[in-house]
Amino acid sequence: MSVTSQSINTTTAAASDEAILDLFERLALEAGRSVMEVFHSDIAVTDKPDASPVTQADRAAERVILEGLRAAFPDVPCVAEEEIAAGVVPPALGRAFFLVDPLDGTKEFVRRHTDFTVNIALVRDGAPEIGVVYAPCTGRFFAGRPGRAEAFEARDGKAVSVRRRIHVREGREPLTIVASRSHRTPETEAFIRKVSAAEIVSVGSSLKFCLVAAGEADIYPRFGRTMEWDTAAGDAVLRAAGGTTHTLDGAALVYGKRNQKDDADFANPHFVSSGRIVDPAFIF
């Protein structure tokens, strides 16, 4: 079944979602190879206007992904971190668009940590529905589409393990919280103290969503700055695995936020992602 720009903007059959996910996987693996070439060489770091770091790996991976997406879906808008930083903003998004973070965890990458990721997502009607998260240094690969989330290992652009279904787990005592290694805030620390006897796992990048999706953790609170490209792919995997992401007023986190009164386009409010917690009331 071929996938067209029209089909991506309408209610698609499962085969179409599978084809979109297959494209995402192939592009993420190719982008991951570009990232690792830089990782094993000299990393040149420059600062963007917002003072966040960017490397040649970010740009190379984004080029691979955007060329692939635009060749397959020329009419579907792409919102990509490095293009946005350069002022390349789609004039309109429509009901469906792509969100791309070619290298989430650039700080981790520069420090030669291993938990940076490549991220590609499709948003439909404000919700992240299809997404992939690939950690090329460790080989962990997570993929999700409506009703199905999977994980496998990949090396050198190829899957090297059998795919396995992943699901969020029922909340257990003590709850396991995943928190940012580089962006821990006082609000996050206060939330962690609120959850008594919690086990804390620190990890960088969008892998935090994926650990919850895979039943390796229970909650991911984020009380710091994130943009939609930081979260969409991991959030798509989490939702496909049965989890949720809510803002602090209890509403589902939505995507495609523009012309916000008190923040920049595509900026997220604080949120909490979770699996099947027995009593979620304490979160909000």
Structure description:
By secondary structure, the protein is of the alpha+beta class. The chain has two domains: 5-165, Fructose-1,6-Bisphosphatase, Chain A, domain 1 (2-Layer Sandwich), CATH 3.30.540.10; 176-283, D-Maltodextrin-Binding Protein, domain 2, CATH 3.40.190.80. It has helices at residues 5-8, 14-39, 56-72, 81-85, 106-110, 186-194, 207-213, 228-240, and strands at 45-47, 53-55, 78-80, 96-104, 117-124, 127-135, 140-145, 148-155, 158-159, 164-165, 176-179, 199-202, 219-222, 244-247, 271-274. Strands 3, 4, 5, 6, 7, 8, 9 and 10 form an eight-stranded mixed β-sheet that branches. A three-stranded antiparallel β-sheet has the order 13-15-14, covered by helices on one side. It has a two-stranded antiparallel ribbon with strand order 1-2. A hairpin with a 2-residue loop joins β7 and β8 (148-155). α2 (14-39) packs antiparallel against α3 (56-72) and α7 (207-213) packs parallel to α8 (228-240). The longest helix has 26 residues, at 14-39. The termini are far apart.
